[in-house]
């Protein structure tokens, strides 16, 4: 499927990008660099113009105008909400409409290319360019963790311009299906709607989509890409296989030669496969960790603190009752000894012991 982006490549921009593309072995970058820049510009516009205007217009009571860190956090969540919604709709449409992509075998999934999948990875790169810029400008707010995420995500998605795993650009961008619900959940907290019925329904949708798209879909597709890369590390498509795409008379293949940029493919470098696998494993591990953290966070918003304290008090009372019964039983078995010299009260009677401190029974 050809690139459906409404604006064609800008010749001057593509020409200026070509030397860098040749140096970095990214032959499809000049075809999509205008989409990368356009996406970065769009998200910058949303961050600088749209978010402040809309937020002041509809949520002036809650929009943090006078706190730089809180305002930056609010505006970036607005951008994230817009980006995740847009990219999800486009990725789902490409997966449905791109027939060449759907028919790919493992060689084409590794070395192949379609313009529609190239558009998705370009729009994703544009977002990560914006993300990198805004993180650098507000490093004191967002810190090293978000900077590392922006850099790694931009590098991994840029590999698609080799092209490398162009097929999987739409596959893994669907991790973002849960992101709109995550942003909405955050905004409910800021709008003093914590624990509301609306946040409950959104929280359920968040957990369901996160579990479905990141844990189930993501783990399954990760296994598939590992299998494809294992084959690609050990062998490349045969010259006969590649030549068949250039000699064919099929109008479908001529219209979209998916192996156009793989005239002389070689087995993928081991370093590239290891880098991709390491990034993917890290993200999948974080997804499982975040899922259980989200369950805990959602539960805290809907389980009253008084109920939690009451459960804790019941546990402590039950333990004290069992200890008292045990002590009474032991004392009943001992002979009664009359203490003629009663001990005087001391300051030690007022000091909690270590067990009380550990259990929190002393407030």
UniProtKB/TrEMBL annotation:
The UniProt record lists the keyword Transmembrane helix: yes
Keywords from the named record: Membrane, Transmembrane, Transmembrane helix
* Keyword Transmembrane helix included in the entry's annotation: yes
Which residues lie in Basic and acidic residues bias regions?
309-325
- List GO terms (cellular component aspect): endoplasmic reticulum; membrane
Q: Where are the transmembrane segments?
A: 36-58, 78-98, 110-129, 141-161, 167-188, 200-220, 268-292
**Location(s), subcellular:** Membrane
Query: What is the topology of this protein in the membrane according to its UniProt annotation?
Result: Multi-pass membrane protein
Q: Where is this region: Disordered?
A: 309-363
Q: Which domain of life is it from?
A: Eukaryota
What residues does the TLC domain cover? Answer: 69-303
A Pfam family this protein belongs to?
Answer: TRAM_LAG1_CLN8
Q: Which InterPro entries match?
A: TLC-dom, TLCD
**GO term, biological process aspect, one:** lipid homeostasis
Q: Report the main location listed first in the record.
A: membrane
Q: Which PANTHER family match?
A: CT120 PROTEIN (PTHR13439), TOPOISOMERASE I DAMAGE AFFECTED PROTEIN 4 (PTHR13439:SF0)
Q: What is this protein called?
A: TLC domain-containing protein
- From which source organism is this entry? Neurospora hispaniola
Q: What is the lineage of its organism?
A: Eukaryota, Fungi, Dikarya, Ascomycota, Pezizomycotina
């Amino acid at each position: 499927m050809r690139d459906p982006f409404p604006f064609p490549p800008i010749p001057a921009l593509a020409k200026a990008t070509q030397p860098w593309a040749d140096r970095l072995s990214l032959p499809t970058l000049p075809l999509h660099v205008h989409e990368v820049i356009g996406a970065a510009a769009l998200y910058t516009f949303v961050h600088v113009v749209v978010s402040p205007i809309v937020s002041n217009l509809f949520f002036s009571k809650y929009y943090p105008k006078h706190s730089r860190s809180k305002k930056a956090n609010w505006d970036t969540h607005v951008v994230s909400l817009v980006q995740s919604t847009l990219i999800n709709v486009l990725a789902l449409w490409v997966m449905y409409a791109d027939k060449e992509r759907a028919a790919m075998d493992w060689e084409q999934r590794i070395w192949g290319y379609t313009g529609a999948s190239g558009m998705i990875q370009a729009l994703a790169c544009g977002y990560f360019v914006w993300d990198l810029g805004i993180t650098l400008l507000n490093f004191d707010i967002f810190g090293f963790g978000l900077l590392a995420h922006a850099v790694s995500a931009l590098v991994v998605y840029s590999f698609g311009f080799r092209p490398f795993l162009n097929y999987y650009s739409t596959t893994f961008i669907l991790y973002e299906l849960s992101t709109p619900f995550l942003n909405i959940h955050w905004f409910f907290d800021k709008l003093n709607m914590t624990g509301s019925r609306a946040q409950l329904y959104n929280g359920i949708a968040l957990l369901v989509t996160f579990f479905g798209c990141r844990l189930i879909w993501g783990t399954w597709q990760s296994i598939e890409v590992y299998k494809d890369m294992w084959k690609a590390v050990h062998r490349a498509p045969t010259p006969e296989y590649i030549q068949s795409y250039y000699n064919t008379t099929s109008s479908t293949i001529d219209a979209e030669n998916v192996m156009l940029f793989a005239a002389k493919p070689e087995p993928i470098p081991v370093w590239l496969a290891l880098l991709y696998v390491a990034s993917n494993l890290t993200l999948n591990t974080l997804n499982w960790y975040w899922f259980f953290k989200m369950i805990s966070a959602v539960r805290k918003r809907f389980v009253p603190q008084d109920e939690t304290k009451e459960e804790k008090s019941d546990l402590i009372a039950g333990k004290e009752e069992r200890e008292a019964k045990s002590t009474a039983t032991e004392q009943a078995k001992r002979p009664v000894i009359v203490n003629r010299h009663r001990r005087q009260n001391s300051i030690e009677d007022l000091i909690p012991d270590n067990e009380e401190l550990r259990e929190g029974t002393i407030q």
